Amino acid sequence: MEALDLDPAEYQQLLEELAEFLAEQGLETSELTRALLAQDTARLERLLREAAQRAGVQRIERSFQEGQYSQGMQQQLGVGDVARELQAISDALGAGARPAGAAADGPLRRPPAAGAAAR
To answer: What span, in angstroms and rounded, lies between the C-alpha atoms of 76 and 11?
Structure first.
């Protein structure tokens, strides 16, 4: 929210517009991606705990095993999918697609290119 310079109500509106946009574009996102975009720390914590349990981190006996279980957690969470999903969202937004009724200067606008701002 702060990085976008939006108050909570504006950020919520952005999330609602983004959800509508994704549905219109036929882009599905994982629960992890939705939680990250919404900054839903409670859901993120639950997802992390569930992934840790499924990966079996409670069986770590030696420090050298941490990497193995960390990778298992990443696979359980679908971390690789998040990068692909965010890239698909970025590509769709970059292609000029806009949510229906979204203002050209609304939260889902793309900032002008550096060269365009100087003109």
So the answer is: 29
- The answer to whether 73 touches 55, Cβ cutoff 8 Å, is yes
Taking the model in full, what pTM does it have?
0.64
pLDDT tens-digit map of 20-68: 998 888 888 999 999 998 889 999 999 999 988 888 888 877 888 777 8
> In the chain, how many H helices and how many E strands?
6, 0
Can you read off the two tokens belonging to residue 46? 């639950």
Q: How far apart are CA 17 and CA 107, in angstroms?
A: 9
Other Cβ atoms within 10 Å of 92 Cβ, number: 17
